[in-house]
């Protein structure tokens, strides 16, 4: 049964379009949240330039506030956070006396940095002026379009990828899993450029690469090229709709799994298919993992729209099997006719990760780069407007790293946690999700990668 009636879905779609319009990228290449953060920076703002330092006046969550056993708010307090060699060294009471370089967090809320777990850094229009996609009819039609566009994009893909990394940092993200085309047009050149862009940011951003046969693993005959990509250092073996694109479900999946087994590599496959063969593909992948236990815990299904076609006992059984074989789901939190069972997956313990997919390219122009926005859409779509639900929604943006556990006990940050975090202009996680709070500063292993703070 759908969580939204047709009328409610239309209402939500309308609200979603307003949200998207509010997050549209400026042609100058700076996001609105980045602009908002910039206008709030003090006149003497600077980047943290030390390896052992204090962030003073940091707002941290302490506990949930309950009224008659109902969580109604979140209690926070101000602290001084000591960072050393990339880690949280200690969390001190505000005003601690320590002879260390210090920057003023101005009461902003400290949260775990977000992670974009499904994006295409290698092919984007981002960084140039406005450019809408052409009309679309099918995935195959989009592939034909891409074959014409790639020769234009590939030569400048390194600089475009770096600009996109900068956008993600401005939205609070410190890491990404990027799919990279392995196709007959761009061949391995796009991979080379993406690897160089990531290398250029090895000290301030973490990214893994999925070798992705965007034009079909079998359809474009790129098995050999995929193997070369793995030899070059791609981290994941990708795949694409084995029936609708490759036209041979078992052969396509067997080829993908064969590459993964040969390179002892994990898998991240795009599966958009909602027809019965989409469900059949998931079942075939589950069987393959059962038959090859070394693959357990190493398969991510991106999109997995077929799960949205299941109900009742059939859905429950599928979720249980996904949990047993330790599959994960990467989602863009889609708005449309198929409502994904994301809350059920999370409740069962199946990892659900969010991603922006594309920011601005020939597939779609709606991305903002904000994982907080994905958590916001999740809360709206699955009717979670209360304090507790909003705070839990943050987990799909942070790979379930949350300041408070489900009982309201403080669990982050702790000493020795990586200082990979963001300061946002919000009073608590719930408000940060509900209002898509502006990101004021982003840190990767203690290094400030975005924003400015007043040095004290």
Task: Kindly describe this structure.
This protein is an alpha/beta fold and 456 residues long. Helices cover 34% and strands 24% of the residues. It has 14 helices and 18 strands. The strands form 3 sheets. Strands 7-8-9-10-11-12-13-14 form an 8-stranded parallel β-sheet. Strand 9, helix 6 and strand 10 form a beta-alpha-beta unit. Helix 4 crosses helix 5 and helix 6 packs parallel to helix 7. The protein is globular. 49% of the residues are buried.
The SS-based structural class is: alpha/beta
Sketch the major β-sheet.
8 strands, parallel
Radius of gyration: 22 Å
Q: Note the overall shape.
A: globular
Contiguous uncertain segments of 5+ residues: 1-30
Spatial order of strands in the largest sheet: 7-8-9-10-11-12-13-14
**Helix content estimate:** 25-40%
Number of strands: 18
Helix count from the secondary structure assignment = 14
Mean pLDDT: 92
C-alpha end-to-end distance: 56 Å
Query: In percent terms, what proportion of residues is strand?
Result: 15-25%
Offer a few descriptive terms.
alpha/beta, eight-stranded parallel sheet, six-stranded mixed sheet
In short:
It is built from 14 helices and 18 strands. It is of the alpha/beta class and 456 residues long.
Provide the fold topology:
Layout: H1 6-22, H2 32-40, E1 45-46, E2 52-67, E3 70-84, E4 87-93, E5 102-104, E6 109-112, E7 114-119, H3 139-153, H4 157-170, E8 173-181, H5 189-200, E9 206-212, H6 223-231, E10 236-240, H7 249-263, E11 267-271, H8 276-291, E12 299-303, H9 312-324, E13 328-331, H10 342-348, E14 352-354, H11 371-381, H12 387-393, H13 395-398, E15 421-424, H14 429-434, E16 439-444, E17 447-451, E18 453-455
Parallel strand pairs: 2-5, 7-8, 8-9, 9-10, 10-11, 11-12, 12-13, 13-14
Antiparallel strand pairs: 1-18, 2-3, 3-4, 5-18, 6-15, 15-16, 16-17
Helix pairs in contact: 4-5, 6-7, 7-8
């Amino acid at each position: 049964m759908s969580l939204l009636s047709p009328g409610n879905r239309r209402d939500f779609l309308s609200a979603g379009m307003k949200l998207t319009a509010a997050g549209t990228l400026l042609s100058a290449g700076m996001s609105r949240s980045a602009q908002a953060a910039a206008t709030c920076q003090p006149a003497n703002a600077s980047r943290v330039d030390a390896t052992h330092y204090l962030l003073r006046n940091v707002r941290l969550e302490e506990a949930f506030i309950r009224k008659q056993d109902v969580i109604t708010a979140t209690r926070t307090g101000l602290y001084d956070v000591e960072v050393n060699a990339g880690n949280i060294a200690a969390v001190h009471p505000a005003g601690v006396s320590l002879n260390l370089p210090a920057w003023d967090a101005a009461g902003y809320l400290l949260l775990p940095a977000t992670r974009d777990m499904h994006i295409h850094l290698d092919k984007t229009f981002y960084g140039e002026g406005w450019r809408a996609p052409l009309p679309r009819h099918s995935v195959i039609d989009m592939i034909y379009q891409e074959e014409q566009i790639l020769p234009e994009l590939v030569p400048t893909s390194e600089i475009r990828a770096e600009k996109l990394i900068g956008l993600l940092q401005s939205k609070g993200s410190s890491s990404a899993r990027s799919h990279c085309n392995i196709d007959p047009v761009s061949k391995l050149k796009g991979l080379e450029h993406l690897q160089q862009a990531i290398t250029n940011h090895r000290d301030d951003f973490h990214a893994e690469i999925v070798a992705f046969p965007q034009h079909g693993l079998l359809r474009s005959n790129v098995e050999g090229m995929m193997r070369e990509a793995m030899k070059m250092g791609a981290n994941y073996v990708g795949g694409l709709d084995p029936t609708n694109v490759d036209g041979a479900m078992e052969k396509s999946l067997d080829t993908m799994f064969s590459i993964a087994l040969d390179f002892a590599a994990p898998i991240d496959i795009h599966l958009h298919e909602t027809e019965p063969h989409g469900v059949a593909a998931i079942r075939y992948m589950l069987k393959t993992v059962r038959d090859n236990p070394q693959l357990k815990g190493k398969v991510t299904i991106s999109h997995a729209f077929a799960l949205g076609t299941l109900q009742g006992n059939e859905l429950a059984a599928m979720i249980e099997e996904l949990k047993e074989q330790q599959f994960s789901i990467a989602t863009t939190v889609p708005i449309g006719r198929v409502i994904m069972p994301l809350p059920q997956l999370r409740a069962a313990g199946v990892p659900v990760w969010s991603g922006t997919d594309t920011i601005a390219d020939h597939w779609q122009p709606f991305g903002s780069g904000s994982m907080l926005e994905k958590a916001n859409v999740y809360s709206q779509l699955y009717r979670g407007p209360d304090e507790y639900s909003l705070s839990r929604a943050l987990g799909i943006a942070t790979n379930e790293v949350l300041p408070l556990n489900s009982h309201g006990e403080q669990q982050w940050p702790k000493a020795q946690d990586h200082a990979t975090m963001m300061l946002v202009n919000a009073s608590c996680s719930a408000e940060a999700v509900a209002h898509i709070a502006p990101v004021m500063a982003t840190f990767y292993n203690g290094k400030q990668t975005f924003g400015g703070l007043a040095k004290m």
